[in-house]
Amino acid sequence: MPSRPSLVFLAACLVAGVARAEEPVLVSITGPLVGRVGDRVSFEVELVNRAGQPLQKLRVIDYFDAGFHHEASTSPIEQKGTIDLAPGTARRMTLDFLLDEPGRQCHRVAIIDQSQRNLGGAQHCVEVQPNPNFVPPAAAPPSTVNVPPPAITAPPPSVIPPPSKTADAAPAIELDLTGPAEVLGGDVVRYVAIVKNNGTAASKPAQLEFSWDEHLSPLEASEGYQLTGNRVTWTIPAIEPKAAQERQINLRAEAPAGAFRDTPPARSCVRAVLSGLTGGSMLADDSCVGIASTTPRPRLRSPSEAGLRLTLADLDDPVKSGDATTLVCTVTNGGPAPSGPLDVVVLLPEGAKMVGDPIPSRVRVESSRVSFGSVAALPPGGRQAFEVTYRLPASGTGKASAIVTGSDLEGSLERTCQTTFLEP
Q: In 50-138, at which residue ranges do the beta strands (DSSP E only) sit?
């Protein structure tokens, strides 16, 4: 059995097993991708409990960029009250914003429990285009009436007001996660998270976490990481204004078992969550990749190569016209492996009338064609018989055929059987 890959931080080595897990709450956001300054936009957020157990007292928090304006509050906004989700159930809610700055504006929904543990999240971004006709609600048009300025009288020194204070300096943190869109199984996938401070004051230290889906396994990470299951975390130090910190991880892409070159790529995602920011807020971003298999689809075997044998015989020959005979079709697997699903068809002579029920009885009859449909795979040494009874109304020779095909086989097996029908 192959050993799991080890995780190193670009200069050191750490052997660690990886637990495959998914976030307990699946979060999806549906909304517009493009808008203009001044537009009011709505986003539908759906939460799905995929933890397999009840989740109680969940907090729903929305963090949004400066280009989003909410009438109730600045970022972040927490939904009033908490949410309980039974296993497999979903909850929907709507978020409304006003777009008031051009550029790429994003908002992020995070689900946390009462212990501040992150249970899921998602991000949605809107490309906001300028709108020269938009007037912000707070702005009033300039007056066209000429009003003389008031006389300026200097107050006595004792009442001269102190100089006004400038706006308080504050950090403005941005998180961006990048990775490839599609790779081949076995490739090394590199994900880079950039944490940038666009504000006017240094940020405080924060925690950056990477987590990933199945079909990805860790190889390398930036120095200073801590690995727990399928999650890697770093402590991000304080970031000065206009400066940035970068962390990366290299993951091995693994195509799913049973996938081939002609099957669709498997989709796996990596998520980055930055927590511990000023005011207890969090930032999140994700990047998903399609993993294509490099395995060619195996060549299909012919029934003979698979070791299948087919016989077709009548139980009564000759018979009187108007009397019946029974055809017995037998399929035997003499090969070393299971046959795969089979389809068995018996073609009766022209003018024949089927008598009674075939064995097995679940068939589809179309004129003289009797189809036994999909038959379970025969194990090595396995055997199965199929019986159809019929009669001919006149004397002569009745020629019947049996055909066996399979989804794992190339070509077919065919046998014929002739029965003589005599004058009464």
A: 55-64, 68-69, 77-78, 83-85, 90-99, 103-112, 118-129
